[in-house]
Structure formats: structure tokens, C-alpha cells
């Protein structure tokens, strides 16, 4: 089983006066032809936005964009008339489809917001743009928070039948089993975990599995993990 461990310090970083964004894949000015995606996941950005700052209105097209806040709150507004504030344990999805404009701003004037934003390709291009957000309940296990998989319930739906995103908050010593799938992406946004047969992962580390055999992940400290299960890759 091919396993590709990506350490936090190897990520490209975009830094401005109000933003620190760490990129797991090629993004913006940081292009690496050997690091463009895993499965159907193209973006896994780990962002910290300063108080009273954020991304001004900008366009997106033909992308499923899932946002998961770790600390703080993030205000969303888009050209389709959708708006909302995203906070920890609330999952949000924006389907850019045929084209949409949106802004994302820190909703606090005093505290930073820390979030992970993930992009996957949709099954079809040119769909009607849409927006969804929903609070997730108990995260003590591996909980589906976004899915397009047939028959799978999740907090929010994405327009990709081959992909699902799970989250878990793990106390020290708690364990979950990764999905067995052709492509799995494990990301540790906070804490420290141990992956069966692989070793320790620290905050910001990730693993890309091809033909995942469903390994066990055990928390070495209070941790949060994000896991993508994918059953095809781009062009596959």
C-alpha cells in the first residue's frame, strides 16, 4: 500500500499582514507539478486570519468548497444571497458551479479564526451554485460531515459521488479506524496521533494513502483529525 507522509514544515506558506495560510497542495503562486491533488482533493489549506480581516469578494467556479473551523468564527457572504457564520462543529459547503462570488471574513474584531478549507472537484460542471451549513453533533468517533456517497448520511452534501469527509475529536488514548478506500487523505489540524504501523503524526502533518487498508489511528493527546475517503482520482 503506497503511503506518502507529508510533514507540516514541508507545506508551502502564504503570509500577509492578516493571513497565514499553509497549503498541502499546489495553490496560488505555490505551484508544484508533482503536488496538485490526491484522489479528487485539490486543496487543503490550513488558514489563520487576523481579527477584523479576511478574504474580500472573489470568484470561484466548478468546485465543491468545504470549510471546517477549528477556533473562532468565519463570516460567509456570496452573490447568490447566502450568508452565515461558521464556527467549530458547524460544517459548511459552497458549490461554486457555473460561477459565484463570495467573501470570507473573521467575524471577531479581537480574536483570530483558524480553519481548514478543502476543495474537491464536482462530478458535473456548470451546476447551479448552492450553499449549505449544518451543525455536527458528537465527534467522539469518525463522523461523516460532508459526503456525496450514495446512501451515506452526512451533515452536508457535496456533488461528488466518490468522496466523503469525516472528522473526529479524540481524547488521549481514543482510537478510530480509517476507511478502506482507493484514496484516503488524513490530516491532523491539531494535536498528535499515532497511525498503526506508521508512527506519530504531529499538528499539521498529513498522510496520503493509496489503496488504504483501514489502519487504526490512536490519539496521543487531545486531537482533531480530518479524513477524506475517495473512490476515484482526477480523470479516473
TrEMBL record:
GO MF terms held by the record: dioxygenase activity; metal ion binding
- UniProt cofactor(s): Fe cation
Domain (Quercetin 2,3-dioxygenase C-terminal cupin): give its ranges: 149-230
What Pfam families does the annotation carry?
A: Pirin (PF02678), Pirin_C_2 (PF17954)
Residues annotated to bind Fe cation: 58, 60, 102, 104
Keyword terms, alphabetized: Dioxygenase, Iron, Metal-binding, Oxidoreductase
**Protein name from the UniProt record:** Pirin family protein
Species of origin: Mycobacterium celatum
Amino acid at each position: 500500500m503506497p503511503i506518502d507522509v507529508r510533514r507540516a514544515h514541508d507545506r508551502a506558506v502564504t503570509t500577509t499582514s492578516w493571513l497565514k495560510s499553509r497549503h498541502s497542495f499546489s495553490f496560488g503562486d505555490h505551484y508544484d507539478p508533482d503536488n496538485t491533488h490526491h484522489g479528487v482533493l485539490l486543496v487543503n489549506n490550513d488558514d489563520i486570519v487576523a481579527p477584523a480581516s479576511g478574504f474580500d469578494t472573489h470568484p470561484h467556479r466548478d468546485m465543491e468548497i468545504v470549510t471546517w473551523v477549528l477556533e473562532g468564527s468565519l463570516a460567509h457572504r456570496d452573490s447568490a444571497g447566502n450568508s452565515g457564520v461558521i464556527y467549530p462543529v458547524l460544517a459548511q459547503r459552497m458549490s461554486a458551479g457555473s460561477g459565484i462570488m463570495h467573501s470570507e471574513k473573521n467575524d471577531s474584531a479581537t480574536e483570530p479564526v483558524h480553519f481548514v478549507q478543502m476543495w474537491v472537484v464536482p462530478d458535473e460542471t456548470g451546476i447551479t451554485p448552492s450553499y449549505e451549513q449544518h451543525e455536527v453533533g458528537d465527534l467522539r468517533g469518525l463522523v461523516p460531515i460532508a459526503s456525496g456517497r450514495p446512501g451515506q448520511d452526512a451533515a452536508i452534501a457535496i456533488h461528488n459521488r466518490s468522496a466523503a469527509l469525516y472528522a473526529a475529536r479524540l481524547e488521549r488514548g481514543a482510537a478510530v479506524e480509517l476507511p478502506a478506500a482507493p484514496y484516503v487523505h488524513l490530516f491532523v489540524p491539531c494535536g498528535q496521533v499515532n497511525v498503526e504501523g506508521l508512527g506519530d503524526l504531529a499538528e499539521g502533518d498529513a498522510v496520503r494513502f493509496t489503496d488504504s487498508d483501514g489502519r487504526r489511528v490512536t490519539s496521543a493527546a487531545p486531537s482533531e483529525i480530518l479524513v477524506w475517503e475517495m473512490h476515484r482520482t482526477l480523470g479516473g
